[in-house]
Amino acid sequence: MSKASIESAMDKAYTNNKDVKEGKNADYIKELAAVDPNIFGIALVTTDGQVYTKGDISSRVSIQSISKVFTLARIIEELGPKAIMDKIGVDATGLRFNSIVAVEEHKGKEINPLVNPGAIAAVSLISGTDSATKWRHIREIHDEFAGERLEVNMPVYISEAGDNLRNQAIAHLLLAYGRMYFDPVQSTDVYTKQCALNVNAKDLAVMAATLANGGKNPVTKKVVVSPSTTASTLAVMATAGLYDDSGQWLYIVGCPGKSGVGGGLIAVCPGKFGIAAIAPPLDDAGNSVKAQKAIADVVNALRANPYMIQPK
Predict the structure, then answer these.
(1) The domain containing residue 25 runs over which residues?
(2) How far is CA 160 from CA 9, 101, 147, 156, 266, in A?
(3) Rounded to 5 degrees, what are φ and ψ at 92?
(4) Closest-CA residue to 186 (of 126, 227, 228, 269)
(5) How many helices and strands in the chain, by DSSP H and E?
(6) How far apart are the first and last CA of the chain?
(7) 75 and 188: one domain?
């Protein structure tokens, strides 16, 4: 991929999608409904650290469910991949990301760390004997992936913390089935705080590029997680990264991705680049409409789909 080809793909993706009006901001979290729906930025970071941007890169939104990826990576690094299979699960649920039925049906098993039940369980597994230590470790891993200090969006955190009874109920149900490994209320609170970390498109692209580069941040050159942890993390992203539409995303784009209801979306093209886009209006599944279109356009233009194999 040449510099010119990447810039051309980014320019076309931005131009072709900047006027898309489909979708609407998440409104079940009051602060997200108030975010400017016209924010639209794309960033791509290659595995050798080259950064390409287009559109609004200065505006920050809360990371929301994209954060689940990096907490997952941390617990795989700490506990190993088998522990995640045994204590949480790695299967797509086929149900909504905050489904209680998904927990009840299999008594807390057969879920994954990228839906709310599994993500709260993942927070409970982070090393630390108290919530402050767990939060410090979660914040550290996000900062290392991003290559900079990420701040908590306090209005979003307060808004979510005041209205997270469903997640608290999920955490208590997991506890009842022996699938919660720390205090459920405190685990839910730390999870809520992690979702409120503020990011822009460049931050997200660097985080994605760190995964694309086998766990080494291509900008800071810091090894954040191992290649084996990266492989396990990408596998869960491929099967469960875009909520109910994960299969459709992989079918169209081919690159493991993860979305958040704040409007962010990342995709990882292993060995090549990480790409991210931010655009708050979401589709019915909770994925950014513009971000999906823009990233798909760039990946396809650069022929970066890892399943697109040219015969020899």
Answers:
(1) 3-64+197-301
(2) 37, 22, 26, 6, 22
(3) -65, 140
(4) 126
(5) 14, 7
(6) 20
(7) yes
- What pLDDT is stored for residue 124 in this prediction? 98
Instruction: Indicate if 71 and 34 belong to the same structural domain.
Output: no
If we measure between CA atoms, which residue out of 50, 3, 14, 58 comes closest to residue 201?
Answer: 58
Contact at 8 Å (CB) between 244 and 274? Answer: no
Binding site as annotated, residues: 65, 116, 160, 167, 191, 243, 261
In the chain (312 residues long), the average pLDDT of successive 10-residue segments reads: 95 97 92 95 98 97 98 97 96 82 86 95 97 98 98 96 92 96 97 98 98 98 98 97 93 97 97 98 95 98 94 92
Binding residues for substrate: 65, 116, 160, 167, 191, 243, 261
Residues with Cβ within 8 Å of 45's Cβ and at least 6 positions away in sequence, in order, are 51, 52, 202, 205, 206, 208, 209, 218, 219, 273, 274, 275
Please state the domain count of the chain.
2
- Same domain for 165 and 204: no
Tell me: do 34 and 85 sit in the same domain.
no
Inside any domain, residue 22: yes
Cβ contacts of 100 within 8 Å, gap of 6 or more: 166, 169, 170, 173
Q: What does the pLDDT read at residue 299?
A: 98
Question: The domain spanning residue 52 has which CATH number?
Answer: 3.40.710.10
Of 22, 60, 91, 107, the C-alpha closest to 276 is 60
Structure tokens that stand for 181 in this block? 């490994």
Q: So what's the pLDDT on residue 101?
A: 87
